[in-house]
Amino acid sequence: MADMTHSTTSGGARATDANALTRFLRATEIDTRMLGMVGALLIIWVGFDIYTGHLFLTPRNLWNLSVQTCEIAVLATGMVLVIVTRNIDLSVGSLLGFVAMIMGVVQAKWLPAYLGFDSQWTWVIALVCGLAAGALIGLLQGIIIAFLSVPSFIVTLGGFLAWRGLAWYVTSGQTVAPLDATFRIMGGGAEGSIGATWSWIIGVVACLLIVLGIAGSRRQRKRFNFPRRPLWAEYFLATLGSALVLGTIYVFTIYYWPVGIAKKYATDHGIAWPDGGLEIPYGIAIPVLIAVAAGIVMTFIATRLRFGRYVFAIGGNPEAAELAGIKTRWVTVKIFTLMGFLAAVAAAISTARLNAAANSQGTTYELYTIAAAVIGGTSLAGGTGTVAGAMLGALVMQSLQSGMGLANVDTPIQNVVVGVVLVIAVWLDTVYRSRAK
Description:
single chain, 17 helices, 0% strand
């Protein structure tokens, strides 16, 4: 009898805890899949930090991690829309390499003959040429897929081979360097960061936007008589979002320039070198701002524009979308054009960060981009996915790479780990979808 009483009490306590957690998640409307990814990311960070002797969770490594994640994060924002419509793009890595070579050749070989070196227009023309080339290639692939009815797998697999070959053909495999100084700012580094003051200004503005966004959403729900979150949940979300933003800014502003770079800066600007050294914080890197801007714009497109609703409608049921009057072919063309444009943006970041255009740029990026989107909750069956989830998935992928690099794990083993993680992510998506039904 005593045993029965104890068992009932324990079960009741567990049920109460479970109900409390369920009520909390329901009140705050936090996505459980996103919460699971955050938990996995924290486990990865803490695990690698312990294994590497506390080298992972340092301002230096976290700052570098944020910069290294940008290229895959930008690509993943477009890959979400591609996969949501039940397509795939295997050409993004090769396309990135080809566009990077175009931008490198334009600014290092072609323009100097007409504008000379160090022209203020060099980086602008090179960037515009790259973005236009990426968009046009995406447009071409989209037209073949949509109007010639060739499966996206085949078209982009052909692009995977063709664009890599053309990237080699442009310079016969030679690396193009160095690049324009202003263009290199897009790659980060000491000159490609905005410093402490502007970082804190952006952080405060971001916090205000979070608060205004939550307040605006509440007003809209009240206006249309939709259910609203409890006030405590609104305060919790605003506080949590602001804390994450300000915490990130703090980490970025306690990472300082190396002594050699700081001394050169002091000499160039006539600053006396103090006895204790000169501490110049990096702050937010320019490529991080580009990636965040891409995420915001793509989220707006996916959730606020008619085009975004069409994308998810096609992914949910292509036949029904066609019967509803949606021009599915043109939507597909626009998706791949947008994907090509984003590949060019990622190419600009990659080329500027390396200060060179090389034939090997973007190798295996298609794997990591697709993996980031899938890990972030984008279903390969179509119809489901979020840009924020894909960007978080990119951070998870890069965290694994960075941690294994610090732990001196061999490259083949790193590829094995990435492959296993991708398979597990797809399996979890299958389980989630079956339970949802």
